[in-house]
Design goal:
- It is a single chain.
- The longest helix has 18 residues.
- The chain has a seven-stranded parallel β-sheet, sandwiched between helices. It has a three-stranded antiparallel β-sheet with strand order 4-8-7.
- It has one domain: Rossmann fold, CATH 3.40.50.1360.
- The protein is α/β, with parallel strands linked by helices and 262 residues long.
- It binds 2-phosphoglycolic acid.
Length: 262
């Protein structure tokens, strides 16, 4: 796994955004895998800036989001469709018809999950998948104990995730306990994976992801099986790694090699 340790959240967002910009500039009709949560917001701001200043165009890009709450319409302010419109899609030149978020309001969610998988395949698969990580090591809404081979499906949220996300809902407002999420097997089929984590409260999950045993107890640890993963973290999220200096050394060697190849 490539682990990039940077000073702070702003550097994490810039580094992550550059991977997406390079991807789209290399392949205009890239298929992006996108994520919600607080962590990707700064990266999306970078992408919006880059789009406005002509450094990248989303005109031919399509996207698939990781997950959605079951039971919320896309017009609900807490839905992930709404989030994506607000945080990215409304501010760049993407054709919204090419943006997919799992349908939280489908009459038959089980069939909708199968269709979501088929739609990803029909687009040629995901070129780069963006991930955040939960304190419990979840990716998407694949909570601990999720099968490491799981596909897009309906998933029950843990109490910890419901509590972590309660901050987005006003008091007394209905908060879903079920979701539709891409599976871990689905995520592992993306050609490249970019995982972002910032802050002390993610340090344990990052340690388990990078240095722990591969286990359904930490769903993100399954990424150790993927051949092209970049874990981008700030100092705080890296603070429980056994040997952060080693990862910094590797990254400096990588950068030196790339500079020589230019
Ligand atoms: P956060 O969520 O970015 O809001 O911390 C990450 C996640 O739960 O995947």
């Amino acid at each position: 796994m490539k682990v990039v340790i940077l000073k702070d959240a702003a550097e994490v967002a810039q580094y992550g955004a550059q991977i997406f910009i390079d991807q789209i500039n290399a392949k205009a009709n890239s298929v992006l895998g996108l994520a919600t949560g607080s962590t990707p917001v700064a990266l999306y701001k970078e992408l919006i800036e880059a789009n406005k200043s002509g450094k990248v165009s989303f005109k031919d890009v399509s996207s698939f989001n990781l997950d959605e709450y079951l039971g919320l319409e896309g017009t609900h302010p807490q839905s992930y469709r709404y989030f994506m419109n607000e945080q990215l899609f409304d501010h760049v030149d993407i054709d919204k018809a090419n943006t997919q978020v799992p349908p939280g309001n489908d009459a038959n969610p089980i069939e909708a999950c199968k269709k979501y998988e088929a739609d990803i395949v029909a687009q040629g698969g995901i070129d780069v998948q963006l991930l955040g990580i939960g304190r419990n090591g979840h990716i998407g809404f694949n909570e601990p104990s999720s099968s490491l081979a799981s596909r897009t499906r309906v998933k029950t949220l843990t109490k910890e995730t419901i509590d972590d996300n309660a901050r987005f809902f006003s008091e007394g407002e209905y908060q879903p306990e079920l979701s539709i999420t891409m599976g871990i097997g689905t995520i592992l089929e993306s050609k490249k994976v970019v995982l972002l984590a910032t802050g002390e409260n993610k340090a344990e999950a990052i340690k388990q992801t990078v240095e722990g045993a591969i286990s359904a107890s930490c769903p993100a640890s399954a990424l150790q099986f993927h051949q092209d993963v970049v874990v981008i973290v700030d100092e705080a999220a890296a603070s429980q790694l056994d040997d952060p200096e080693f990862f910094k050394y590797i990254e400096s060697q990588n950068q030196a090699l790339l500079a020589k190849l230019k």
